[in-house]
Amino acid sequence: MDPNYPNILVADSISEEGIERLQKDANLDVLTNITKDELLEIIDRYDALVVRSRTKVTKDIINRGKRLKVIGRAGVGVDNIDVETATAKGIIVINAPEGNTISAAEHTIAMLLSLARKIPLANSSVKKGEWKKSDFIGIEVREKVIGIIGFGRIGSYVAKMAHGLGMNVIAYDPYVVPANIEKTGGLKVDFDTVLKDSDFITVHVPLNKKTTGLIGENEFRKMKKGVRIINCARGGIIDETALYKAIKNGIVAGAALDVFVNEPPKNNPLLDLDEVVVTPHLAASTIEAQKNVAIIIANQVLAALKNEPVMNAVNMPVIPKDAIVVIRPYIPLSEKLGKIASQLVNGTILRVKMIYKGDIAGYNTEYITKSALVGIFSNILNEHVNLINAPVIANNRGINISEEKSKDIEDLTNSITIEVETDSMKKVLIGTIFGKSEERIIGIDGFKINVIPSKYMLISNHTDRPSIVGKIGKLLGDEDINIAAMELGRKKPRGEAIMVLSVDSPVPDHILEEIRKIEGIHDAILVSI
Ligand code: NAD
Asked: With bands split at pLDDT 50, 70 and 90, how would you rate the model's confidence at 427?
């Protein structure tokens, strides 16, 4: 062992290229059959541990890893790593989400062409000894419209390839500026235009509350007759029952699915349809993707061990010691303000400005600014957004980030303001810390309030008048939704006002609709953090 090199253990099999890269700059052990007990025995020798999904990096392993500084996951999901314990110990956890982008995009194009030319059906027919040429007349994709929903890593690469096939690319992604779509030869459009105008629709969004059932009965109804649908993202983004109906009633001519709500799919009627092409969650399964992932993880682990910046750290880096007392409580507060602001705005985010007032302005506030970006992006991106990659993401998306500082104080020792500006509106939230760590939201859009951030908050704008609060309270009460706290802000009696209700459970969409119908209410949005 060379004492000048870090000690790295690779505990699961990764591509040879990754091993070779690590060997160049580390004392490397590759023990891919190691048991948990054996790992517990030897983990204290290593500075970094590299795993895939076999090895469970549990709390006891992390606690025994006295020298451990980095854990690398050669892949995307980090469910097998106790990230919380690692973070508490200041151990960086790194993954490689971008390693499979090309493979997933190419699989999408393979699915598109399979649908257009009925290749899977024709293949089984010929193998059965048939020769039914006229049954498999296909369509050309050139000059057809492809609608891409979600223009991140994979969606944007699909756009480039589809453009190369001579297709007309339109894309919907509210979080991407038009220029980024135009760069690939595509055009940014709204959601309904994708539904109405596309011959092919492919989804590349993460699966979350907003995107579950993103394409359901209503959406199929708006589509062009004969549209073809592709899902190589996550099961559940397209409502499977609605898709079945849309194929049966002739709106959808074909669908290609790599992912399902339940995997493997059981008793799924879609599998009985000739119009449906399926693969078993294969989009990322290529030799190159595995090689890329191994090389990315090797490079990132080595960089992290040298304290160089890494792109894919899943958890938070350590804050400089001198600033820790002042800065630390503002980091989670800022993330919450970012999360709230991103849910209150519509349109494409163009600018994020952070304003620091009071003592805090004297410190390096970059962590707090980055934390606000983490909050903004965490609801809209598939990858783990963290303090390290959030500014890079903002930059790639053409979002202007700025900080303004003033040591002058108004009523408080410190306050942080986040201004999020989109192409159609601006939201301003102010927060502070009372005592050592009590978080407060003290302003929204110029209204003074005093709110403890809570998991679910119903935020409404209305014209101040009697009975509004009562009507909202009744609607929530009838639905058995408990109000934990209420705060009203207004600039003058009977003028414009804001209300923040902290509720114990989410408010369903139909109740939000009812609330929006109350006279005097301009808007009501349920925010969750
Ligand atoms: P990404 O985070 O780079 O991009 C996601 C994009 O979706 C972002 O640009 C975001 O702005 C956009 N978005 C978020 N919410 C949206 C909404 N409501 N409407 C429109 N756009 C929205 O992610 P990625 O790496 O491109 O991955 C895309 C999808 O592919 C994810 O669901 C991922 O899990 C999946 N994936 C599947 C496989 C597979 O094996 N089938 C492999 C890799 C990735």
From this structure: very high
